[in-house]
């Protein structure tokens, strides 16, 4: 998904744009760092945060989120919900695509049907583990797309039928998977070209693309004067620059090339000691969970040993997460001992975050060398082996933090578990993803950014049918709980559903399906001339519609 933006290009950019300073950079213009390349601007194809963000810059869905993460109207001025919570009727406002066509309910029907037919990794999101759109799972498997539970009685009315009530359904509509696509425009393009240039991409949102090519390190956007809410959009034009190195990001901020960047590690300490820069530093929770995936497939030529739960528990309990977060990530990330990130998914009734009690599963997840070695001795006895040499993969073009974390985990595990060797295997993101999906790894540093503000955005990952399940783990009891919480008897019982998800989490962690590491954060430098960026822990993490630059 991610490609490295070469140092040569960055240096050339610095020479072109000249120098400035943290607070004074890019006066009147917005230049934002992207940590990785955009993979696709096709909402049925993309799976990465960078792509979702750029799509959301340019396209509105039915609903958007306000600065506090609450659902508010976007293309839908209002909506009605049936008494059983299973039918939503959205009433669309007058809005236009950037080619002048009206945005209609048929645009949503077309996009949702196409998603079920053509999406891969995100096909599940419309089905009965998340949105519960009627017949979505069947359509994804090849059934007639016209049987999907969506319809357009008239151009301004979009109706969605669900198989079960979904408490977070309105918020889910802000996620790019559920955005519309102009069917007439799409069908007029050559196959496979949608979203590959400004000419093959339509906006109905705050901005339009003015310069973009797939894999490009520079993306230019400008205000969409035909946007239904254009009066409240202050930016006339702005840009993204892809920068994968924290060192280069800090240099770009100092030189005035960029006025919004993420930094980490030693750069944070450097900024904190700089009185001119520290006032521009903000710590932004990201809602992402970083974890180790264990390949448990006993048929894999590397991973047979990791089908043993005691070996997995040994590795998990040999990791000092506090040290990882403080000394190697060092951007405000929080050591995490649950399968759900900290400061995410508040209970609608109590206001407490789902993972507020980080000691809830201390029996299975923690840093305890004696316990880790006890687990290891059990694994040695059960497997009849005294040593284990395991391959540990990670994407080395996802920023330098992951490199430091991988090296630290290797050092901790090998020091605390005699006989266990982790062979580090860095590789480009594309190869890393291929290795995950092709079952060719032992351990992997993995992460997940929540698509919506509910614990189920994580728990569905590890169901037997989960599209992201690279751990090759299956548990009938776990699957039943998730099914009961989505389409079963618990779907409409908020309190019972909440408690059942804790039971599912216990199964997940006592089996060490993953080893949670830390909840992500961003140490972000924002020029003092920039205001109005909205940050969200779920879905699209940054929104620029309300930004002003002095």
Give me the count of strands.
21
Structural class: alpha+beta
Regarding CATH, which class of the largest domain? Alpha Beta
CATH topology of the largest domain: Dipeptide-binding Protein, domain 3
The CATH architecture name of the largest domain reads Roll
N-to-C span: 34 Å
Supply the CATH superfamily name of the largest domain: Dipeptide-binding Protein, Domain 3
Determine the number of helices (DSSP H or I, runs of at least 4 residues): 16
Largest sheet: 7 strands, mixed
Pick out its properties.
550 residues, alpha+beta, Dipeptide-binding Protein, domain 1, Dipeptide-binding Protein, domain 3, 2 domains, 7-stranded mixed beta sheet, 4-stranded mixed beta sheet, 16 helices, 29% helix, 21% strand, disordered N terminus
Write the topology of this structure.
Blueprint: H1 7-17, E1 30-34, H2 49-58, E2 63-65, E3 71-73, E4 76-81, E5 87-92, H3 105-118, H4 136-140, E6 150-154, E7 157-161, H5 169-172, H6 183-187, E8 207-211, E9 218-223, E10 237-242, H7 246-255, E11 260-263, H8 266-272, E12 281-294, H9 309-317, H10 321-329, E13 334-335, H11 369-383, E14 388-395, H12 400-416, E15 420-427, H13 429-437, E16 443-448, H14 456-459, H15 476-486, H16 494-510, E17 514-526, E18 530-531, E19 534-535, E20 542-543, E21 548-549
Parallel strand pairs: 1-10, 14-15, 14-16
Antiparallel strand pairs: 2-3, 4-5, 5-7, 6-7, 8-9, 9-10, 11-17, 12-16, 12-17, 13-17, 18-21, 19-20
Helix pairs in contact: 9-11, 15-16
